[in-house]
Amino acid sequence: MLAQPHNPHKRQLLFGGLLVSLLSLCAALLIGSVEIPLLNVIQHLFTDDGSIHDQIIDQLRLPRSLSAFAVGGLLALAGCLMQVLLRNPLGDPYILGISGGASFAVLVGMLLNIASIWVTPLAFIGAICSMLVVFAIGQGTSSQTDKLLLTGIIIAAGWSAAISLTLSIAPPMQLPGMLFWLMGDLSHALSPYPALLVLCAGLATALWLAPKLNLAAFGLEHAASLGIQPHQLRLQIYFLTSLLTAAAVSIAGAIGFIGLITPHLVRLLGGQDHRILLPVATLLGGSLLTLADTAARTLIAPMQLPVGVLTAILGVPIFLWLLHRQPNR
To answer: Each residue of 75-100: b (16+ CB within 10 Å) or e?
Structure first.
């Protein structure tokens, strides 16, 4: 194995990621239609006095902010893995149709009134089926990476059509909820602990794979010459990315751009080594979605905006700026 590059900014990046995460969670707890002072927020986190403020913090803001952080971290981590697998900075579960496959499967479950316990398994089946189709069609040419990306975009368009068909035949009573969930909705995400558990397990697995991912970033053929088994690594990334995407989609619907722009931002800060890129991107992705969800529920309160719309509005100019900074990549 090659020696991993030394990153003098490793501790600073990790500390910065942790600090941004803490600040974003504090902002989510403080900001809302009901103003609660900081000292009272801290008090309500550790005591239960049964007041309305205590219920707002413990039953609404805290679970929702943790859910947003978990979903953002899941999407950012999945984006990092996809970009290694494709060796392309445009790799992202949303763009490649993996989120679309998971969303379609969940919408079909909603249409059939399947119990909520089956939402995550359905999303996982849809995500992994979509990924397998993309990579089954997109391999086998000299320009494999470009073909994979183009195939993913076409598959995403196909899932979009299938989703539109599903919505067109949905009962009128179900349609508003399905539409709002599809655009990204965390209003019903009141149990963050399963998502946080998946995030921790996924991050631990990704960090275990980090030395191999550093080699795979130069190409799977190069990694194979250094003793890495490309087929095994590819399957591991397939499975892990599908699981991360399914967990995110089953909680909050299809949310784009978090998995696309977050790895770029971390690399701009010097986080090339995947041992630092993966945890910092996870923290930053969680923070970005937490802040976006805070804005979504407060900008026009008491009405709420779909958080997926805000991430797209913010993600498009940021990604264009990133492309402008690196025109030769």
So the answer is: bbbbbbbbbbbbebbbbbbbbbbbbb
Which of 255, 284, 301, 290 minimizes the C-alpha distance to 63?
Answer: 290
Catalogue all structural domains in the chain, each as residue range(s) with its CATH number: 10-325 (1.10.3470.10)
> Residue 89 — very low, low, confident or very high, per pLDDT cuts 50/70/90?
confident
**What pLDDT, in 10s, does the model give residues 249-266?**
888 888 888 988 898 888
Amino acid 56: pLDDT: 86
78 neighbors 257 (Cβ within 8 angstroms):
no
Tokens, residue 259:
């998995």
Q: How far apart are CA 171 and CA 228, in angstroms?
A: 51
First to last CA, the chain: 27
